[in-house]
Amino acid sequence: MPEGTTLTAAQLPQLLENDTRVKLAGVDVDGMLRGKVISKKKFLSIAEEGFGFCSVIFGWDMHDKTYARELKISNAENGYRDLLAIPDLNSFRRIPWEDNLPFFLVSFFDPDTKEPVCACPRGLLRTLLDRMRTKGCGAMAGAEYEFFTFKAPDGGSPAAFLQHNLPQKLPSLTEGMFGYSLTRPLQNKDYYYDIFDSCEAFKCNIEGWHTESGPGVFEAALAFDEIAEMADRASLFKLTVKGVSTKYGITPCFMAKPRQGLPGNSGHMHISIVDTAGKNLLARETKDEDAEWDDIAYLSDVGRHFLAGLLEGLPDIMPMLAPTVNSYKRLVENFWAPVTVSWGLEHRAASIRILTPPTCKAGATRFEVRVPGADTNAHLALSAILGCGWRGVEKKLEIPCPPLDRGAEIGSGRDKGERLAKSLKEATAKFMHKDSIAREVFGDDFVDHYGGTRENECRLYDEAVTDWEVQRYIETV
């Protein structure tokens, strides 16, 4: 289908004329795509009304273990009942590494009320957008992902290798630190360009693609798009990388911090607010000579309120930006990762980097939120950013702190912003507090469910005995 075309159910028979099966998938709270292949006949019969999909995908973790404390959406008491999954026809694309198999994303709804399930990441983001649209506004977004790549030395699967070896023994696809290399990708040229071309074919286009500083590390900047579409494309980008990597015996790793002593994998999110005509509402036409700080001289009043909302809400939404125990191994001092509530014009050490004239065109004015890692669920991260920022606009909040000093080290005395949570447990406690901004923006149902899933993650980590502990204490205590 041509870009921007609205697909209808009546067009499906012709569109799928030469197909016999269709793949469908929805996004769970961990950002994983959960789905199935169904016959074309079945798909045509449920394309408009939807079909039953087991709610257990919101009742278990990323390894299919039910949560220790069962949550409201899916539990033994309700029999892990079916939810209503409705295909998003406009998400249609074909999977190039699966012989162009037709693919559609789905969203999940309560079968009784027909309302979006609170835990459905696609539904959460679209609910926030619907509120903004009543005010004649929308949002654009972009995403940047870094990821490590590993390959077993015997040509077998990395998963099999790890059954008999420690994780740190798994070899990287390439060695050494060589960011922006023009020659290093040639060592795996077919793989490198297959990722790029498959993303274009699968409609999750890469805008920029290069090696990052780290062994076997790549970075992709995805093409800027409408925010809900961008969230979908970010999820599908990860699927593309994993699908293509399988052909080459490579395992891509989107963990926030795969290797001790090396930089982590970031998942920076860019966002701008626009009107119905696409005009950037964060930009100020002319420089504000009376601005409190030069950093916001070209930022509109809407932009300043949005920034204030982001800064005020940041400590309370951390589990949506840093969702795993491992996320907080990346968010430490001295590794180019932000650790405080901080902001600044073109400041890469800050949590929120502002891009405005004179460093970019007015139409490209945006915020880059640098807290998220590559392990983030893009739908939840963008929901968190949009929800808190828009709260600032609605409440006309004032920026609560000055910009980060030029040259200030992250977490240094010159960075006086509030320290962000140092662990998932601390972050989840703030997120679930009865007075948290997260509850105000997203509602109790979502906070209780998502917070419960993060509590489960913390419990499993607390019970784990790590290799570090055994190596350190086996002989000495």
Short description:
Helices cover about 30% and strands about 20% of the residues. The protein has about 475 residues and is of the alpha+beta class.
Count of DSSP H/I helices:
14
Tell me the name of the CATH class of the largest domain: Alpha Beta
Q: The CATH topology of the largest domain is what? A: Creatine Kinase, Chain A, domain 2
- What percent strand? 15-25%
Please name the CATH architecture of the largest domain.
Answer: 2-Layer Sandwich
What is the averaged pLDDT score? Answer: 94
Give the termini separation.
66 Å
Fraction of residues in helices? 25-40%
Number of domains: 2
Under CATH, the homologous superfamily of the largest domain reads Glutamine synthetase/guanido kinase, catalytic domain
Radius of gyration from the CA trace? Answer: 22 Å
The biggest sheet, with number of strands, parallel, antiparallel or mixed sense and barrel status, is: 9 strands, mixed
Structural class of the helix and strand makeup?
A: alpha+beta
What gross morphology would you assign? globular
The stretches of 5 or more residues where confidence is low (pLDDT under 50) are none
Question: What is the strand tally?
Answer: 14
What is the helix/strand order?
HEEHEEEHEHHEEEHEEHHHEEEHHHHH
Jot down its keywords.
single chain, 477 residues, alpha+beta, Ubiquitin-like (UB roll), Creatine Kinase, Chain A, domain 2, 2 domains, 9-stranded mixed β-sheet, 5-stranded mixed β-sheet, 14 helices, 14 strands, Gln_synth/guanido_kin_cat_dom, Gln_synt_N_sf, Gln_synth_cat_dom
Fold and architecture overview:
The protein is an alpha+beta fold and about 475 residues long. The chain folds into two domains: about 10-115, Roll (Ubiquitin-like (UB roll)), CATH 3.10.20; about 135-460, Glutamine synthetase/guanido kinase, catalytic domain (Creatine Kinase, Chain A, domain 2). The chain contains 14 helices and 14 strands. The strands form two sheets. Strands 6, 7, 8, 9, 10, 11, 12, 13 and 14 form a nine-stranded mixed β-sheet that branches. Strand 4 and strand 5 (about 100-110) form a beta hairpin. Helix 3 (about 120-135) runs parallel beside helix 10, helix 5 packs antiparallel against helix 6 (about 225-245) and helix 11 runs antiparallel to helix 13. The protein is globular and about 65 Å long. The N and C termini lie far apart (about 65 Å). It holds the Pfam family Gln-synt_C. GO terms for molecular function: ATP binding; glutamine synthetase activity. It comes from [Torrubiella] hemipterigena. Keywords: ATP-binding, Ligase, Nucleotide-binding.
